[in-house]
Design goal:
YjbQ family protein, YjbQ-like_sf, Jelly Rolls, five-stranded antiparallel beta sheet, alpha+beta, about 130 residues, UPF0047_YjbQ-like, elongated, about 35% strand
Length: about 130
């Protein structure tokens, strides 16, 4: 297992980690297998999504904010219930295929850590299973 540390700078943001993950895969020497990325945080999710047009990131964050507004009447007293719900919607992990030493992503896809309660120092756990 590899631990990847990232720093976020805003309460809500998507941090592009595509290149950092690709380097981890290359360094592993695994040619074919499965890459699993896991967030151990209840307010940091993961997604693979469009990496070409930054408007998609803004749209995703904006619509999640509309769907789960931070000022809704939540019972949780830490004032971050919206963050927990957003991670439940996005998901805390990704499983991706490794083929011929490359993470298999679509032409426009990138890998993003989805911060919903920042800014913070975060960790991601990466496990590669393969040959």
């Amino acid at each position: 297992m590899v631990e990847l540390r990232i720093e976020t700078h805003r309460r809500e943001e998507l941090v592009n980690i595509t290149e950092r993950i690709a380097r981890i895969v290359t360094t592993s020497g695994i040619q074919n297998g499965i890459l699993v990325i896991q967030s151990p945080h209840t307010t940091l999710g993961l997604t693979a999504n469009e990496n070409a047009d930054p408007a998609v990131v803004r749209d995703l964050l904006g619509h999640l904010r509309t769907l789960v507004p931070p000022d809704a009447p939540f019972q949780h007293q830490e004032r971050n219930s919206d963050s927990h719900i957003k991670v439940s919607l996005v998901g805390p992990s990704l499983s991706l295929i490794i083929h011929q030493g490359q993470v298999m992503l679509g032409t426009w896809q990138g890998i993003f850590a989805c911060e919903f309660d920042g800014p913070r120092q975060r960790r991601l756990w990466i496990q590669i299973v393969g040959q």
